[in-house]
Amino acid sequence: MTGVLVMGAGAVGCFVGGLTQLAGVPVHFVGRPRVLGALRKHGLRVTDQDGLDRHIPPLQLRLHEEPPAGLKPDLVLLCVKSGATAAAATELGLTLPEGTPVVSLQNGIANTPQARALAPQLHWHAGMVPFNIAELAPGHYHRGTGGALAAQGGAADVALAAWQTALAGVGMKLKLHADLAPVQWGKLLMNLNNPVNALSGRPLRDELLERGYRRVLAALQEEALDLLDAAQRPVAQLSPLPPRRVLKLLRLPTPLFRLIASRMLRIDAKARSSMADDLAMGRTTEIDALCGEVVRLAHSLHRSAPLNACMQALVEDWPRRRRAYTPTELLAAMGLG
Ligand SMILES: NC(=O)C1=CN([C@@H]2O[C@H](COP(=O)(O)OP(=O)(O)OC[C@H]3O[C@@H](n4cnc5c(N)ncnc54)[C@H](OP(=O)(O)O)[C@@H]3O)[C@@H](O)[C@H]2O)C=CC1
Ligand SMILES: CC(C)(CO)C(=O)C(=O)O
């Protein structure tokens, strides 16, 4: 590969882009001054829970505040939060040659179609990042959970296949799917924990060890699964158990849950959901791309999704509240007490 462009150098962009560069591919990072400044000063360090610890010195990083004119990357990784998709897709459309492949590594379902509508001359692929990335220090990005990357495509997608080979060289799996929609919905079910985690104010592992928070998550997932069944949309199994069995697991008393869910609990002690980062930094959250997507699915079926709608409202009310919910408070606020 001659070059990859990361659009949105943040947690996902720096980690996946860093791995790509460590695999020998030249990577251009487009980001904000805060992140670029840290990368210029400290370089880029990528670590993971399996012992990876690599550093790219500042002088080897190609850093930009906007996509450089005239660049012809083989592949672009769209790594901005959902609220920034429209602006980023428009910028890419104005700069990149027609037909450039772009993989959205974002959560939610609607980012790729939204971006495609704004820059139809680019070749858009949905993608999925299953693992958590935390910025542990300026310029230091850490993978705190496991799993393989996924993208919509096949062997005929030359740039994706080349990226897959490059990533394999640094131990990162990328699975290509003819239809990524079931995987995206499977990931969205997992992401229904993002607001629970954000409102709990706790790291992911601590939050999941509280039965009250798990009951809220199970209720949100069950509502979504019922709607997905009604809409006859298949959902991929992204964990060792099928989604309906996960509901049962989540509702178990904590000592049993801790025993049975040891794989789910293989999470770095400090890891938090990406929405927890947004609340902490006072940024717009992706709640509309997660619970909001479930509410829209319900409306498309002339039904409602009261629990996901309630969770969306609680997250949107955060700027007024700014106080973490205990498990009992969250259950009560959701009408599940
Ligand atoms: N973090 C995680 O563990 C995971 C995240 N994801 C998903 O990946 C996506 C990215 O998340 P994450 O990496 O956490 O997000 P971050 O906020 O850490 O990174 C995105 C960065 O891109 C910047 N940005 C936005 N628009 C532009 C632009 N037009 N030009 C240059 N820079 C821009 C943002 O700046 P600003 O803040 O100013 O907008 C921000 O610094 C989300 O959809 C998220 O849900 C998926 C799996 C795991
Ligand atoms: C990996 C996971 C599910 C949880 O951290 C995530 O996607 C996120 O934080 O947005």
UniProtKB/TrEMBL annotation:
Its EC number is 1.1.1.169. Keywords: NADP, Oxidoreductase, Pantothenate biosynthesis. The keyword Oxidoreductase applies. GO terms for molecular function: 2-dehydropantoate 2-reductase activity. Residues 181-315 form the Ketopantoate reductase C-terminal domain. InterPro entries: 6-PGluconate_DH-like_C_sf, 6PGD_dom2, ApbA, Ketopantoate_reductase, KPA_reductase, KPR_N, NAD(P)-bd_dom_sf. It catalyses: (R)-pantoate + NADP(+) = 2-dehydropantoate + NADPH + H(+). Residues 4-148 form the Ketopantoate reductase N-terminal domain. PANTHER family: 2-DEHYDROPANTOATE 2-REDUCTASE, 2-DEHYDROPANTOATE 2-REDUCTASE-RELATED. Belongs to the ketopantoate reductase family. Catalyzes the NADPH-dependent reduction of ketopantoate into pantoic acid. This is 2-dehydropantoate 2-reductase. It comes from Pelomonas lactea.
